[in-house]
Write a structure and sequence with these properties.
3 domains; mainly alpha; 437 residues; three-stranded antiparallel sheet; single chain; 3 strands
Length: 437
């Protein structure tokens, strides 16, 4: 940390000047950009090659980035109240908000937090459900997702759902500690908790953000209620009222998705207009021999047709478009901007043709994020904090190590200090966060 504490104008006493603030920010951004690139590369290796060593390397790099950001944020207080240009004033605010994972100032606690975060994501990525015990065949998330997609046996679906969720039980203790340490770090930076810090990014007070989410939810709720009750009725017809009572919540394992976050896989069961052309184009794409590469190139062509720049050559050289057979990887799609200029990548970890409609939707979202990264490239470090919660990467919800970035609702444990099931309001907030691009 000597490189960012001893030479910074923010360490001298007294209130700084506007010129000193500009010099401070320039030094801070250069240092944080270098640390962010180092952390991003370590995190990429950890996510695409899960081992104890790669988890440790990623945790160490993330610890250094968090420590430097926290240090600079503290030093920036010297310029509180100084008349600064609007863009520089905004950068001072974004300096604190660039942290996705605020950590305590105590070095031991900061190290503990980064190790927990890396370990949880690794445990999630390599988790397996072994129905017959360790001696029998074990099922990965991809195997279980195929069951959730195609099976119509409620008992098989229930076993797959319960089996997968059991991998989270050993993580619970670590997650409770993760919440405690992250909230402590946020409070040291002047925020009520980590949730309040995240909601501060939306150019409004955290409570105002929650109120806006509530207003939007109330607008959407009548439509959601109609879709929900219709779906429950159709599933009750399929499985019987003893399995799907029409006056209780839909069992999550019957919605065709491990997290019940999208219901496209049960469309044949709830199709409102029988005999109309199907929205599922999987069979047609399989006949035309589409693969992951063609799907991603199609996504890129759409965005270049809008005037966005094409992806760099390194994207096609360094991305992971299919799940390797020889090692454990994180199980969810991610878009990464390693250096924000020409090292931009994506990572997939599920078979594309399980459901081409779903895969196409993921490609569209992530391709949009890639386009946004391309537009923002060559911006300063602070500029990139406007792009996404984590300025280095975007990931879809679900991963244990990443889910804390997306669930921003008031009832999320990082906002309240306890564990609990996120409400629909918090999911609406998560949706808003996931589409800020």
């Amino acid at each position: 940390m000597s490189s960012c504490t001893n030479n910074s104008p923010g360490t001298s006493g007294g209130k700084g000047t506007a010129d000193e603030a500009a010099k401070f920010m320039d030094d801070a951004e250069k240092r944080l950009m270098a640390l962010s690139i180092k952390s991003g590369r370590a995190d990429w290796v950890k996510s695409t090659y899960i081992t104890d060593d790669t988890e440790a390397l990623a945790a160490d790099a993330n610890k250094d980035l968090i420590a430097a950001t926290t240090e600079f944020a503290e030093q920036s207080k010297r310029f509180n109240g100084v008349d600064l240009p609007a863009d520089l004033q905004r950068k001072m605010k974004l300096l604190k908000l660039s942290l996705t994972l605020p950590a305590p100032s105590d070095p031991a606690e900061r190290e503990e937090l980064t190790k927990i975060a890396a370990s949880m994501e690794g445990d999630y990525g390599k988790g397996k459900y072994c129905p017959e015990g360790d001696k029998g065949k074990c099922l990965s998330l991809s195997d279980l997702e195929e069951i959730m997609t195609n099976s119509r046996d409620p008992e098989e679906l229930k076993k797959a759902w319960l089996g997968w969720h059991q991998i989270a039980v050993p993580i619970r203790k670590d997650y409770v500690r993760f919440v405690e340490l992250s909230n402590k770090g946020a409070k040291e930076m002047g925020f009520k908790d980590t949730g309040a810090m995240w909601r501060e990014k939306y150019d409004m007070e955290p409570d105002a953000f929650s109120a806006e989410m509530e207003r939007l939810w109330q607008q959407v709720k009548p439509l959601y209620d109609s879709l929900y009750t219709y779906t429950r009725h159709k599933l009750s017809e399929k499985y019987g009222k003893d399995i799907v009572p029409e006056d209780k919540p839909i069992p999550a394992h019957l919605l065709g998705n491990m997290w019940a976050q999208e219901w496209a896989n049960i469309y044949p069961l709830v199709e409102p207009y029988k005999g109309q052309p199907s929205l599922d184009v999987t069979a047609a794409l399989e006949q035309q021999r589409w693969d992951a590469m063609r799907m991603v190139k199609t996504g890129e062509r759409f965005f270049t047709s809008l005037g966005l720049p094409g992806l760099p050559k390194t994207f096609w050289e360094r991305s992971m478009l299919v799940k390797p057979r020889d090692r454990e990887v994180v199980c969810h799609a991610n878009a990464w901007a390693i250096n924000f200029v020409d090292d931009i990548r994506i990572m997939w970890a599920y078979p594309f043709m399980v459901n081409a409609f779903r895969a196409g939707a993921v490609v569209a979202v992530v391709a949009g994020v890639m386009g946004w990264f391309m537009v923002l490239r060559r911006q300063t470090f602070a500029g990139h904090t406007l792009a996404l919660c984590d300025p280095r990467r975007f990931g879809s919800p679900g991963s244990a190590g990443r889910s804390y970035r997306h669930r921003l609702g008031r009832r999320h444990p990082l906002a309240s200090g306890h564990l609990g099931r996120p409400s629909l309001r918090s999911r609406a907030a998560a949706l808003a966060d996931s589409i800020v691009f």
